[in-house]
Design goal:
Elements (H helix, E strand, L loop, with lengths): L7 H29 L7 H15 L1 H28 L5
Length: about 90
Amino acid sequence: MERKAISLGEAFPAVLAVALVSILLVAVIYLFTQFGSTFDTGSAAANATGDLTTQFSNAVPLIGLVLTIVLIAIVIGVLITAFYMRSSGGRV
């Protein structure tokens, strides 16, 4: 079985998925912030909404980390493919 590195065409869905998740995360944080401001300060609903906003906000740095790892995997895959093609006498 021949293993093949990820190509640029196959990488687009991964980057798109990370972008969509990050947009959804920002939208959820914004909605929780707006929704939480409608409750009385100190009420259980305001505290729960504040806690949810904090939990979602803590996940934002992970999006950048995942995107960085995906981009590094794409670059490594392209480099491995280029060196493999060059060493095997194939066309680059």
